[in-house]
Amino acid sequence: MNRLLKFILTFCAFMVFVVNVAAQGIIRGKVSDKLSGETLIGVTVIVEGSDPMIGTTTDLDGNFSLDRIEPGLYTLRFSYISYSTSLISEIK
Q1: What residues contact 10, with CB distance under 8 A and at least 6 apart?
Q2: Model-level pTM?
Q3: DSSP single-letter state for residue 39
Q4: Of 42, 47, 49, 84, which is the most buried if we count CB atoms within 10 A?
Q5: Is 59 exposed, middle or buried (0-12, 13-18, 19+ CB in 10 A)?
Q6: Which tens digits make up the pLDDT trace of 40-68?
Q7: Digit-coded pLDDT (tens) for 2-48
Q8: CA–CA separation, 62 vs 9, rounded Å?
Q9: How many CB atoms within 10 Å of residue 78?
Q10: How far is it, in rounded angstroms, from Cα 35 to Cα 51?
Q11: How many angstroms separate the CA atoms of 46 and 36, rounded?
Q12: Residue environment code for 8-41, b if the CB has 16+ CB neighbours within 10 A, otherwise e
């Protein structure tokens, strides 16, 4: 039971605060811990299914930016040590 509770809390603690795609083809966002509100440094952000792979990591303020992205629908994969991997879909 403890493991399940820890998994659920970890999953809930991971969130994307802001993600948007500007008209010029840039996906920007900020990643923070849902419970504490602290920004997360070094989170891996990858566009699912991109070939070649498109990705980046968050900076010291938890911000990330993916440039030269064609307008459309995307799924982003966020992964970070000790957090569950999260997928955010329908980024426009």
Answers
A1: 82, 83, 84
A2: 0.70
A3: B
A4: 47
A5: middle
A6: 999 999 998 888 899 999 999 999 999 88
A7: 555 455 555 444 544 334 444 557 888 999 888 888 999 999 999 98
A8: 20
A9: 23
A10: 34
A11: 24
A12: eeeeebbbbeebebeeeeebebbbbbeeeeebbe
